[in-house]
Amino acid sequence: MSPINLAIVGVGKIVRDQHLPSIAKNADFKLVATASRHGTVEGINSYTTIEAMLDAEPSIDAVSLCMPPQYRYEAAYKALAAGKHVFLEKPPGATLSEVADLEALAAKQGASLFASWHSRYAPGVEAAKAFLGSTTIKSVHVIWKEDVRHWHPNQDWIWQAGGLGVFDPGINALSIVTHILPRLFITGAVLEFPENRDAPIAADIHFRDADGLPVHAEFDWRQTGKQSWDIVAETAAGQMVLAEGGAKLSIDGTLTFAEPEQEYPSLYRRFAEIVKAGTSDVDLAPLRHVADAFMLGKRKFVEAFHD
Ligand code: NAP
Question: Where does the Gfo/Idh/MocA-like oxidoreductase N-terminal domain lie (predicted)?
């Protein structure tokens, strides 16, 4: 089968860090064009708008949309309307309804839509799911604390409405939580907003499941020094720690699973799989929890944030 002719829209940090190397190593894809206002990829036809790109490059089969979430719907709509398969970076959109709309359009067009969640493909996630499925979970603590100045310098969009603030990394934790734990819902949350920003810098969230399983998540962007991306579960079979964003799994302090990180190569393998199968993969559970936190959460204003 000939490769899927792929275009990228929104050439920025994640495209250079992850998409380009993963696409280059995957024989199912051939990068044929990019659309970005400023960014380009050497040796690849580049356009400044998705409209110009789709007009000029009819051979495009699929597009990866890697711009900030507030600007993704318009591009996704245009690509799907033109019959292209679409890979959405996380979070898949700025609202639940716009992504549901895209899902319906993809089905109508017979195109594949992929709402990607890279952290779900972290090495220890499946082993954690298997462990938790084999025992009784008593409680869960999610700690996702990082330094926004280090990881998101000069990203104004992330602080604007729809940019999600601390939920931009926090939704990665939620994408793992919704994959490895029973179905949860939020019972209370406190969101801390810098007084000069439209998105939260920290969030403290409590969830439970139908049987009362307590799950507590702490997201904070003010962490300097050691960074934390950990999920700790107390279970009948001991304490499980899924650490470093899903990379390492320990049970009662013994490392039981650690393999090299393969998140984006796995995402592109999955995208090829759904394109070949003629299906879509759109799980909105992580984004739904974020929406619920904004809906149910108390707001606290905290000191202004300056880069
Ligand atoms: P970024 O570099 O700030 O943005 C990506 C590109 O989108 C920019 O270079 C820009 O390209 C384009 N863009 C920016 N603002 C735009 C606007 N208003 N309208 C249209 N295009 C715009 O961000 P990123 O870190 O790559 O993140 C992009 C997405 O990937 C986010 O949803 C993020 O959550 C996700 N992600 C990021 C990381 C990471 O480590 N950075 C990891 C995983 C997932 P042009 O100026 O050339 O148009």
Answer: 4-114
